[in-house]
Design a protein that fits this description.
Elements lengths: L1 H6 L3 E4 L9 H11 L4 E7 L6 H14 L4 E5 L4 H4 L8 H15 L4 E3 L2 E3 L12 E5 L2 H10 L2 E5 L5 H18 L7 E10 L3 H17 L7 H11 L23 H4 L1 E3 L1 H12 L5 E6 L7 H18 L1
Parallel strand pairs: 1-2, 2-3, 3-6, 6-7, 7-8, 8-9, 8-10
Antiparallel strand pairs: 4-5
Helix pairs in contact: 2-3, 3-5, 6-7, 11-12
Length: 312
């Protein structure tokens, strides 16, 4: 956490999947104490494993503890839900959950089917932004309509796909009729850089597998073939794991479409292309190469990719 801030990154994001990773809110609370500048995001939580009153309390506490640096990423549910054998919620249910959060944050009494709820330390203003994660056009349109931002996650780096996704967000914003409302777009993309392209590609294959599972946009013939093999064997308990054997079915040729990976020069070119699309933030999900550590990759991405791209 401190390394991320010391190196000059703008934000620190942690996932929320209770059976795969350590508890997000505990770690983000630690981050609020150990850092002073970076924004602290949960990317992303969901309405199934997190009751709205729990999320409202946890995020408002984090916002207070961090001095206003909290970011709430939300979605319909992925591994946190599927590892329990449950299903994601509908877009309508997500929208209702978000409305409850905002109402609770005001501190006013909120009437629900289960009774009246009130967050005793809630007050108007000062709550964290709600950023809605999505892949398909309908979810991204919803993000534009009701979110404070949109997170494009699990979709990769293909320019045509990303332009289509951003257009869906813009359509949602236009439908909301609030062009002056503060709104930010985020791209969460797996990343690995190394002088040996093979090592970088191997590092990100698990995340490429995630992107292939449920595509909402056209795929190449090679990507479709890899997807068919993945769907027959995907194990959510091996989500994003480098040890997962199914990652071997992903050919090199499709990796750059779904991850920022390769040599330093290749990664810089990729990142510049993504920046040109107009995202407010590009979040790099660091994958350590074989024999390396995540901390080393975080440092390498700043030194070899982010810093040169900023200088340009």
């Amino acid at each position: 956490m401190q390394l991320v801030e010391q190196l000059g990154y703008d934000s620190l994001w942690l996932g929320d999947s209770q059976l795969l990773w350590r508890e997000t809110y505990v770690l983000l609370g630690c981050a609020a104490v150990l850092t002073q500048r970076v924004y602290l995001g949960i990317g992303v939580t969901n309405p199934v494993t997190r009751h709205p009153t729990v999320t409202a309390s946890a995020m408002l506490t984090l916002q207070e503890a961090s001095g206003g640096r909290a970011l709430l990423g939300v979605g319909v549910g992925s591994t946190a839900v599927r590892t329990l054998g449950q299903q994601p919620v509908s877009r309508r249910a997500l929208a209702e959950w978000i409305a409850l959060l905002r109402a609770l944050w005001t501190g006013e009494a909120v009437a629900t089917a289960s009774g009246t709820w009130r967050l005793t330390f809630g007050a108007p203003g000062g709550h964290p932004p709600i950023l809605i994660a999505g892949r398909g056009p309908k979810m991204l349109r919803l993000a534009g309509q009701i979110g404070d931002g949109a997170i494009l996650a699990g979709v990769g780096c293909a320019g045509a796909t990303l332009r289509g996704m951003l257009e869906a967000v813009r359509a949602g914003r236009a439908a909301a009729g609030e062009p002056a409302r503060l709104f930010r777009t985020y791209l969460h993309v797996p990343a690995a850089v190394h002088a040996d392209r093979r090592l970088a590609y191997e590092a990100v294959r698990p995340q490429v597998a995630v992107a292939l599972l449920m595509p909402h946009w056209p795929l190449s013939a090679a990507a479709e073939e890899a997807r068919a093999k993945l769907r027959a064997s995907y194990d959510y308990y091996q989500h994003m794991s480098r040890q997962a054997r199914w990652a071997e079915v992903i050919p090199d040729e499709i990796v750059p479409d779904f991850a920022l990976a390769g040599t330093p020069a290749e990664c810089v070119a990729q990142l510049r292309g993504l920046l040109a699309l107009g995202f407010d933030e590009i979040t790099l999900i660091p994958y350590a190469v074989e024999g390396g550590t995540r901390a080393e990759m975080i440092a390498a991405l700043m030194r070899d990719v982010v810093a040169p791209s900023r200088a340009a």
